Amino acid sequence: MHQTCTQIAEEMTLIGEDDEPPSQHGLNIPSLIVPNLLPFRYNSLIQNSRVQTVRHKTQSTTKTKIFRQTYYPEINDKEWNDWHWQISHRIRTFDRLNQILKLSYNEYHALVNSGVQLPLSITPYYTSLLSVDDPDQALRRSVVPTINEFVKMPCESDDPLGEEHQSPVPGLVHRYPDRVLFLLLDFCSTYCRYCTRSRVVGHGAINAGKDRLNKAIEYIRQTPSIRDVLLSGGDPLTLSDEKLEWVLFRLRQIPHVEIIRIGTKVTTVLPQRITPKLVRMLKKYHPLWMSLHFTHPDECTPETHRACSMLADAGIPLGSQTVLLKGMNDSVETMTELMHELMKMRVRPYYMYQCDPISGSSHFRTSVQKGLEIIKGMRGFTTGYAVPTYVVDAPGGGGKIPLMPDYVEAHTHEKLILNNYENKCFSYPDPLISGEKAVLQ
Length: 441
Prior knowledge:
Helices cover 31% and strands 15% of the residues.
């Protein structure tokens, strides 16, 4: 007797409740998905997913090779390139980090005191990219805590985007009419010091248990206006393949869910996570998109290139999300170089975020004017594909508000006066019709 898709889904179970590190064992869910029981459009997708994945050879920078020889001489390539090994050997303590980096005063006192809200966690791979003796290096500043995190400004908040007030069920944020943010877990392999969700990330507040996930999925099922689901966290790709597929399979059973997106930073901090097995599984659930978190061009290594190539070869559109950070990537030159590197990896620059006013983040935030200067310095001087949309995520849950430099000089009764990227004046015939307001108004 044949089972229905619903019966098969009900029999699928999550492999344990904890996700740190993810389980290496579990049900082989692909074997449970019988093609002739699925809707036709996914039938063909699953069959097409059997096409052999292109092999991508793993390479490393000289810096990473020297780091491995110094701190992990006994670890072979197979272990180093195993994402489970990377997670289980994260740098999580003062003692271990102090063995590797020459800690500054600000770093030392942040680590020996317990006042920081966000835990310390850095994969060995990403640690290999950090400067040993320069505490102002962009990558190091992004993951090593400093005493600046103890300073909370009046304008800052633990939940600046008001996500807690827009959460109909635990771990689900419904801010926009047609899409939801689905937080699968609160674990990341590496914690960014400017994280918007530092109030929950790394504290065990959001688990990947079946009951909680089912409640969120049921809310999506019962809300027909939702056509787009963004999976985030924490980092959803730190789940096992089996757990992630359990979620994707159930979402694909909901007729009104058209698009599934995954927000992740593993391509940057844990590129070993992108495996042929993972890619084969993801290909079954198109249309599937990914938003990748990048901060600085130094993150664009051979390992990252390989990970992005595997995802792109699987037909997954890749977009980037970059937070504008003071003293780290807040120049036209650095931001342009990052976007060019992303384009070479087939990652389309998507958003450049103004840093959210999260508690203890004042040392990371630039002025909004600085962000506008960067966009103006890129527009026209490089391809439009490489220019991200600059946005402020409005505090209090107002959503993303795009910001653009002002290129309109004046609007007369006969024409629009515009400035181009070289600050030269041009006019465009655009007579004002009676009752219309000028563009500048």
